[in-house]
Write a structure and sequence with these properties.
By secondary structure, this protein is mostly beta strands. It is built from five helices and 30 strands.
Length: about 450
């Protein structure tokens, strides 16, 4: 029977090189006794490509924004992981360029990788895939913690990668082989072997770069020559071909002793919770002057005015585009109810007052009175203390009132959900790792914290 487990952890990585300091968040999957780690890459914007690279394909350098967090393999997929999913290595090849559970998988093409991911996804319930070329390069550069090094984690290729076997082809001075993973230093994110060892397929088909800024790019479409991008360089190549910007190519049906792959998946959306949180806005927010008149109740033409607020995930909330609801005004306090808010998402809101024809009551330039972020959905008037027992098999909850509890893993997935006000929670089934715990009272979050088991 196929068995799958996951664990999560957060730790700080400090490499013995200047200016490298990253908080590494990883999650470990165990499939049929073989474990592999995925590293979280926080979304961000970077300069992709290199105008000075010997590889003309890497120009022009251009701005790329990745809008969502994603996860990428700590190492290339190993032969051990491949066998745990596919039961055996391809019998057509003798794997003369390195054989063993900790060696990277090679002799696999696009179809082989898709089949592997399909089986793995069925076992784990995840959506593993190849990284896009932009995701690969951003992770190789160290993401938002990048130090701008030539190779993935260093300016000295020997620190972080196996390359250069071409120099020993004639005299045998350098082994013509790949190497077990994690033998060199990791990069700023704790990712290994993104320089050298085995080149890696990404999901993009080859297309030239353009200078225009891009968001979440996917390069190219399937062309007549079916050339796809490979990244990172391998044990055979020259040093510049192992840089973080170098772009190689191969056909999508290529099976060689120098190309493998690394897994990725997009950060899953947090499971939605319906949170009914009242938002009260007093005069510190509503006492804005529009042509010298304050928005107050009981003032002439305000009887025909609709009060309310809009809320959304952007600081620049817009009435027409974002969620909005009617609000009631009593004295100087405007009260409304926000619903269908996603757990873990920060919201912003604007108060508005408008006539039936959607025109603003006061002022031509400002349609909204802008307030601070909508964090009053968490009404934490109670003090809680949550701590584990010495064996870390139970959680004890002290103080405050609540009537339901939810524990999420680092991917935002709901792991434990309990109704009632039970103050002793059995967590013996949870693997060691970091989790998020929320306490609710009548649908409102009253406590939100992280726990480490």
């Amino acid at each position: 029977m196929k068995k799958v487990f996951t664990t999560t952890a957060i730790f700080t990585l400090i490499c013995l090189m200047p200016k490298i300091y990253a908080q590494v968040i990883d999650t470990t999957f165990v499939v049929n006794g073989v474990n592999f780690k995925m590293i979280k890459v926080e979304h961000g914007t970077f300069q992709m490509g290199d105008n000075n690279s010997p590889n003309n394909n890497a120009a022009p350098a251009h701005q790329v924004s990745l809008s969502r967090d994603y996860w990428i393999g700590e190492t290339e997929v190993t032969q051990g992981l491949w066998v745990s999913i596919k039961d055996k290595l391809p019998e057509t090849y003798v794997f003369e360029f390195g054989l063993g559970d900790l060696y990277p998988m090679y002799y696999c093409n696009f179809n082989d990788i898709n089949s592997f991911c399909s089986i793995l996804n069925g076992l784990t319930g995840m959506n593993f895939r190849l990284p896009t070329e932009a995701e690969w390069e951003f992770a190789a550069r160290g993401g938002i913690y990048s130090n701008g090094t030539t190779y993935s984690g260093s300016d000295n290729v020997a620190d972080v990668g196996w390359i250069g076997a071409y120099l020993g082809v004639n005299d045998g001075s350098i082994p013509q082989t790949s190497y077990p993973v994690k033998q060199k230093l990791p990069n700023e994110l704790g990712i290994y072997d993104m320089t050298g060892n085995i080149s890696e397929f990404v999901s993009d088909y080859y297309a030239p770069y353009t200078a225009a800024p891009q968001t979440d790019p996917m390069q190219g479409q399937i062309g007549t020559d079916n050339h796809v991008i490979i990244r990172g360089g391998d044990w055979f190549i020259i040093d510049y071909a192992a840089s973080v910007s170098y772009r190689g190519q191969a056909t999508n049906d290529a099976r060689t002793g120098r190309i493998g792959f690394r897994l990725a998946f997009t950060q899953p959306d947090a499971e939605p919770e319906v949170i009914n949180g009242s938002v009260s806005v007093d005069n510190s927010c509503t006492a804005a002057d529009f042509n010298g008149t304050k928005i107050n109740s009981g003032s002439g033409d305000l009887a025909a005015v609709e009060f309310g607020f809009v809320y959304g995930t952007s600081p620049n909330v817009d009435y027409a585009a974002d969620m909005h609801t009617i609000a009631t005004l009593s004295g100087s306090t405007l009260t409304a109810t926000a619903t269908n808010l996603a757990v873990g998402t920060q919201y912003y809101y604007n108060v508005y007052a408008k006539k039936a024809d959607n025109t603003c009551v006061y002022g031509e330039e400002s349609n909204f009175i802008t307030c601070n972020s909508l964090d009053t959905q968490i009404e934490n008037e109670n003090t809680f203390n949550i701590y584990p027992n010495p064996a870390r098999k139970q959680l004890f909850i002290e103080g405050g009132n609540f009537n339901s509890l939810v524990i999420y893993d680092v991917l935002g997935r709901k792991i434990i959900s309990i109704g009632g006000d039970e103050k002793v929670i059995d967590v013996s089934s949870l693997p060691n790792g970091t989790y998020n715990i929320r306490l609710f009272l009548d649908g409102k979050i009253v406590y939100d914290t992280k726990i480490v088991k």
